[in-house]
Write a structure and sequence with these properties.
Layout lengths: L3 H8 L1 H35 L4 H22 L5 H21 L7 H15 L2 H24 L18 H53 L3 E7 L5 E6 L1 H11 L14 H12 L4 E8 L5 E12 L6 E10 L1 H29 L5 H16 L3 E8 L8 E8 L3 H4 L4 E2 L5 H8 L3 E3 L17 E9 L2 E10 L7 H46 L3 H15 L4 E8 L4 E8 L10 E3 L3 H9 L3 E3 L22 E9 L2 E10 L7 H52 L6 H15 L4 H12 L10 H4 L7 H7 L2 H9 L10 H5 L20 H15 L11 H10 L7 H12 L5
Helix pairs in contact: 2-3, 2-4, 3-4, 4-5, 4-6, 5-6, 5-7, 6-7, 10-11, 10-14, 11-14, 14-15, 14-17, 15-17, 18-19, 18-24
């Protein structure tokens, strides 16, 4: 705690500095005065030595000089004495100067300087006192001078002092007063500032005292002072009462401090003694014993004190602080941090597990539990709500530990016996310290002693449980329950996310599979191709080893293999079953799915398929293919291990079977439609040929003309790059090119001679009649180009529309060349057939007029290849 001395030293810092300044001023002033007055007095005495009055005054000044010099030399004299000496000297000089009439200086200057020096060098009161004295002296000398009382002492004979009038003297007095008051006010302000600083310092001191008092209250009661003897022995010189009682209660004697130390920590205490004996401060933690036999942790703070002469440690000041609660809190915190770290590392598995497959994630979870929580065995079970069994069972999707092989064989149902079903039903943690005493425990591991079951909960839904078993009793405590509950909550969320992701992926893949099947159905009517795509998706999406499709033959009343995939042998390749025969026949008759869990045990079913046993199939499904109420066939799937099917799996199987039935139905309908269409086309073509034959029979002279020009036109069109699709319509157009002549009267059509102009007008109407007849038949719309336009000419002079150049359809331009070639090469009643060269010359002559030049060139090339003879 701060004392009065400290306050005085702190509070008078400014005063000390002021005193030092005053002392320096006094010393320098006295020194300067001493050196200045010595030559002045010598000169003055030499000059005025004959004057008695002046000599007396000189002696006085000589005395004053000696006084000042002694004050300056003997500096050990108190500064206040020196200050008063300087003030007295100034006052004396001022008084003498006034009396001598200014012979030794202006007395007014000295009188003004005296109060100032007193105020600066002493204090304010001294300044006021000297100011009053100087004023009184000044007025006294002034009055006596004017009244003539001091005439005998005055040097100036005209009896005139420094001031000739009272006005001048009053001004001087007023000036002195103003100066003194101003100096007094400034000095008062300085004192006020010092007082304010003193108050601030006092507040600071009070605050420091308050803080020090608070710190003192917080210091442990276990304080002590050790004295180290010259012989190196350690004794307690002083202790707090609490510390003394603590040692005596344990050791019996205050100096038996060793008994206070907890034995395992004695080396630490000895290290402490060694440290402080060397003169170094020490801070150390160790354990001590209490009178109740308790072990407490303390933190010891010790600071040694050395003897200045011997440099040896003589005392040690120290305190002890009980830190037991802190140590226990730190250990507890460390345990919690360790558990949190274990939980964090285990949870990291959930965060950084790349696979979103529930089974792989579950394996990572149980492995993390074994690694971080150090228990013997762990397994993870989920509720399988999609199984085909009557009761939901618990599916063990991951297991780790020594009991893995044993526990994997057991099956648990949700409403059955066991700690896991009980925990899931109750939605509570079950911690059994001794499983042998619990009636709900189902033995599945010989060494099991304790078990902890944590339900896996997502929101309000229980999805499964984490089961931990140990070969030690009481292996799981409350901390394990808390940590595992937190971890199980996170694991449940991760598993549910993985399950939803897997479900979404399965749905996406199945939708894609259905789309692929739909595309196959829409893009092709090849039933075998469609069924091959279907079986590929069945095997991939349902994850089965083999599949086949048996088609139903309505006429033979049998199921026959249409396609198959995944078989290692030729088994079932030549299957032909009657309805009701075998599993496929049974599925067809009963119109329901037939499921065989182990086909190897059904020997009767293998009689019709001797190679099937070599495939080693276990699971079998037969699904009837029905579309629009009619049986189309049977879809069979095989797997070499038991199939863990669920409702989603079966639903997708039925969907694929439905797609297969639709594909078969569509393919059958298309096949029937194609057959009907082909028959109809053949009927159309037969009808057209019948029309042409009837027309040729009417015009006997052109009886074979139609067949010839049709054949040649098709050859020429093919040579010019016309597509096969258009060739069909060109063929029909060529056959019907003169169909319009049906409307021409026989008198004109069969007239042996030349036709009149009117008759030609009627004859030239036959293309119009053809267009009128055929435009009403949709089937022959594309064949109209030749019947309607084969009499148009390249230069536009043809009929019936007067088309020219490319306005004329290509088919009509091709046919025009062939028609003229055949007509000129045939006998007519009115002329003989022309030679081939003559006909070709005529055609070249009409090139660019009647005929398309490109068609003529192509026809000439065709003739050169002897295609038409």
């Amino acid at each position: 705690m701060m004392n009065g001395t400290t306050f005085t030293q702190t509070g008078t810092k400014v005063q000390r500095e002021l005193e030092i300044w005053r002392s320096n001023i006094i010393a320098k002033t006295l020194t300067i005065t001493a050196y200045i007055f010595f030559p002045v007095i010598v000169i003055w005495v030499a000059q005025f030595g004959t004057n008695k009055t002046v000599s007396q005054v000189a002696y006085v000044y000589y005395f004053l000089y000696a006084l000042i010099l002694s004050l300056a030399v003997f500096r050990k004299i108190d500064a206040r004495i020196k200050a008063w000496g300087l003030i007295f000297l100034s006052y004396t000089i001022g008084t003498t100067a006034l009396i001598l009439g200014g012979l030794v200086g202006d007395g007014r200057v000295y009188f003004i300087a005296v109060p100032i020096l007193a105020m600066l060098l002493i204090n304010t009161n001294a300044g006021m006192l000297m100011a009053a004295l100087c004023l009184f002296t000044y007025f006294g000398i002034s009055v006596t001078a004017h009244t003539g009382w001091l005439t005998n002492w005055l040097i100036i004979s005209d009896n005139t002092l420094l001031f000739s009038t009272w006005v001048q003297e009053g001004i001087i007095v007023a000036a002195c007063l103003v100066l003194i008051l101003t100096l007094h006010r400034r000095h008062s302000e300085l004192l006020m500032s010092l007082a304010t600083e003193k108050v601030d310092l006092l507040d600071t001191v009070k605050e420091s005292e308050s803080r020090y008092r608070l710190i003192s209250e917080l210091v442990s009661d276990l304080a002590y002072v050790l004295r180290i003897t010259p012989g190196g022995e350690i004794e307690f010189e002083w202790t707090t009462e609490a510390f003394s009682l603590a040692i005596k209660s344990v050791s019996g004697d205050i100096n038996n401090w060793q008994n206070l130390i907890y034995p395992p920590d004695m080396p630490i205490a000895l290290k402490f003694i060694e440290q402080i004996s060397s003169g170094e401060a020490d801070e150390r933690e160790f354990r001590v014993l209490t009178d109740k036999g308790e072990v407490r942790w303390v933190r010891n703070y010790a600071r040694p004190e050395k003897d200045e002469s011997t440099k040896q440690v003589t005392r040690v000041f120290g305190t002890m602080q009980d830190i037991t609660n802190r140590i226990e809190s730190e250990k507890k915190l460390q345990r919690q941090n360790t558990k949190i770290a274990r939980l964090y590392r285990a949870s990291t598995t959930l965060i950084y597990e790349e696979s979103l497959n529930p089974e792989r994630l579950a394996e990572s979870i149980v492995n993390a539990i074994l690694e971080e929580f150090g228990k013997s065995n762990c397994s993870l079970l989920v509720i399988d709500k999609y199984s085909n069994s009557a009761k939901p069972y618990l599916k063990r999707i991951a297991v780790a530990g020594p009991y893995a092989d044993e526990v994997s064989k057991g099956k648990l149902t949700l409403d059955g016996q066991g700690l896991v079903p009980k925990a899931i039903r109750s939605e509570q943690i079950i911690n059994v310290s001794d499983v042998s005493k619990d009636i709900n425990y189902i033995p599945n591991w010989e060494e099991a002693r304790s078990e902890l079951v944590i339900p896996l909960k997502v929101g309000d839904k229980i999805i499964g449980a984490v089961d931990m078993q140990s070969n030690e009793k009481n292996a799981f405590d409350k901390d394990d329950e808390r940590l595992m509950s937190i971890f199980a909550e996170r694991a449940a969320s991760a598993l549910e996310n993985a399950r939803l992701h897997k479900q979404t992926q399965e749905h996406l893949h199945r939708i894609t599979a259905l789309k692929n099947v739909d595309n196959a159905i829409a893009g092709s009517f090849d039933l075998r191709l469609i069924l091959r795509v279907l079986l590929e998706e069945v095997m991939k999406q349902l994850e089965v080893d083999a599949a086949d499709v048996l088609l139903y033959d309505h006429h033979m009343q049998r199921l026959e293999c249409a396609t198959r995939q995944g078989f290692k042998t030729s088994a079932l390749q030549y299957t032909s079953l009657r309805l009701g025969e075998g599993y496929a026949g049974k599925a067809a008759v009963e119109r329901r799915i037939i499921h065989i869990e182990n086909i190897q045990e059904e020997h009767a079913s293998l009689e019709n398929a001797p190679l099937l046993p070599t495939e080693n199939f276990i699971s079998y499904y037969g699904v009837p293919l029905v579309a629009k109420g009619e049986l189309k066939g049977v879809l069979e799937i095989f797997h070499r291990t038991p199939l863990a099917s669920n409702s989603d799996w079966l639903e997708f199987l039925e969907t694929l079977a439905g797609q297969a039935a639709i594909a078969i139905d569509n393919a059958t309908m298309f096949e029937n439609l194609q057959r009907s269409n082909s028959e109809l086309l053949r009927a159309y073509d037969a009808t057209l040929e019948g029309w042409v034959q009837a027309l040729d029979m009417r015009d006997r002279e052109t009886e074979t003309h139609t067949q010839r020009v049709t054949k040649t036109t098709i050859e020429l069109a093919r040579a010019m790059g016309v597509s096969n699709e258009r060739l069909i319509h060109i063929k029909r157009g060529a056959l019907l090119h003169d169909i319009g002549k049906i409307a021409i009267p026989d008198s004109i059509l069969l007239k042996p001679g030349s036709l009149t102009d009117d008759e030609w007008k009627i004859m030239r109407m036959h293309p119009v009649y053809a267009q009128h007849f055929l435009s009403k038949i949709d089937y022959l719309h594309l064949a109209l180009e030749i019947p309607y336009s084969h009499h148009e000419k390249w230069d536009g002079s043809g009929y019936p529309q007067g088309l020219k150049r490319e306005e004329i359809p290509l088919a009509a331009r091709i046919f025009a060349v062939v028609d003229v070639w055949d007509a000129l090469g045939s006998d007519r009643p009115y002329r003989k057939a022309l030679l081939q060269d003559e006909i070709l010359a005529y055609i070249h002559e009409q090139k660019g007029l009647h005929f398309d030049p490109e068609v003529v060139d192509a026809f000439t090339t065709l003739l050169s290849k002897n295609v038409y003879l």
